[in-house]
Amino acid sequence: MPEKTRFPYGREVTVPKEMEGWEEMYPAHRLFSAERQEWEDTQFWYADKIHAPDPMVPLDEVFHQAWQIALSQYTTRVFCIPPAQGIAQRMLGCYMYICAIAPPPPDVIQAKAELFPKRTFPLFENYDALWEKWRTRQQVLGNELQSIKVPQELPRFVPDFDSRTTVPGVTPAHEVMEAFNNAVNIIYRAWQYHFAYLNVTYLAYLMFADVARKLFPGISESAIGKMVAGADVSMFRPEEELCRLARLAHGQPRVASILKSDRPAARKIESLRELDEGRMWLESMEEVKDPWFFVSCGSGWFHYEGSWVDKLDVPFSYIKGYIERLDRGERIERSLETIATARDALVAEYRKLIKSEEDRNSFEGAFKNTRTIYRYAEDHLFWVEHWFHTIWFEKMREFGRLCVKQGVLKEADDFFMFNRLEVPYLIEDMTTAWALGESIPTLKWAEKAAKRKKILEAAAKWQAPPALGVPPEVVAEPFTVMLWGVTTDRVHDWLEGASKTGDQNELKGFASSAGCVEGKARVLKLLDEIVTLEQGDIMVVPNTNPAWAPVFSKIKAAVTDIGGITSHAAIVCREYGVPSVTGTGTATQVIKTGDWIKVDGDRGVVTIVKRGNGAG
Question: What global pTM score does this model have?
Answer without folding.
Answer: 0.93
